[in-house]
Amino acid sequence: MSASSNPPALGKPRKSYALNQCALYKTRSKRRLAQILGVNVSDLLRLSADDGNFEVFELEAQVCEFTRTTRKARWVQNPVSDLKAVLARVTKLLSRIELPDYCHGATPGRSYRSNAQAHVGARSVATFDLKDFFPSTTSKQVFRFFHKDLQCAPDVAGLLTDLCTYKRALPTGAPSSPILAYWANRDLFETVDQRGKALQLKLSVYIDDITLSGDVIPRSLSEQVEGIVKSHGHKLSGHKTKVFGPGRPKHVTGVVIAGGALRVPHARFRKARAIRAAFDAEKDERKRTLLAAKLCGLLGEAAFLDARYKRLAADSVKLLAAAKAKLPPRPARPIAGKSKRTATPTKRWASPGPVPF
Q: Is 12 helix (H, G, I), strand (E, B) or coil?
C-alpha cells in the first residue's frame, strides 16, 4: 500500500505523487535539468566539482556537561551556500515522491516520534543501526537511482550524482543526503521489509535506524538482518543492536515506549533538572539566558513526545523571556549619514518564578 493511500497517523498528511510524476523523471538534457533547478548549466557544472564546493571539518568529541555522555567525533562535509540551495531544490522534489509506510526519515509529516509510534503496542522490539550510513552509500548507488529509477539520461544522472555526492559518497552535511540515502538503498530496506513480513514483524526505518517489532522476535533475527545489510554493502553497528522483550520499556530512536504510550527517556528529565540547577546558580545574565534557551529547547522537545511535559515547556518559555528581559540593552549602531540614535530600553517582565521538577 502506498504512503499516499495510508498517511501517517501523526502530523499533517503529506501530499505525494508516484515516482514517475517527479519533475526530475525522464530528464533528458542538462539544459532541462538546469531549468528545473533554476540554475544555469554552467553553474551546475561548476558546482558539481568536489574541490571548493564543500567545507570539510571534524566535529570533535564532546562530553555533555549536564549528563556526562560523550558524542564521538565525526567528519562533516558541508556544501557551500550556492550548492546547498541547489541540493535543497533537489530535496524538495524528491521529498514529494510517495514512500512506503515504513519510511519515517526525511519524510514530510513524519519524524523520529512517528517512527517510535509505529511500534506502540508491540510485545517485542528489535532495533538496528547502520554504521557510517552516508559515507557507505556510494555514488554508484546514487547514479543508479537517478538513471534507473528516475530514468534520467546518463549524462544528467551523472551530473545529479556529482552534485549530490562528495568523494564518491553521500556528504554528511548536505540537505539531500537523508532522502537520497533511502532511495539509493531502497533494495536493502525492501528486502528487510519482506523478511519482516515473513516473520510477522512490522518494519520502520528512520534514516540509519531499522526497527522490527511483533509478538515474538526470533533468535536468528539479528543474524538475518546483518546478512541482508552486508549483502547490500553496509555494516551494522553491533553494539547498538538491541532486543526488548515483553514487559520491558522499549527504546526506539530516542523515545521510550512504555505502558502503551510514548515516554520521554529519564536521561532527558535528569538533564533538564541539571540545566535548571545551573541556571539558578549562574550570576552572569547572558549565560543565564543561554541556559534558559537550552532548557526551553529540551522541554519543548519533551512536550512534542509526551503531553505531560506541556506545562513545564510553557514555564520554560516564560523563564527564557524573563532572562532575556534582564539582559543589558545592546548599544545602538550608528547609521551611515545619520545621527546616532539612542537605544530603546528593553521591555521587562516579572520573573515567573522557579519551574517545578
A: coil
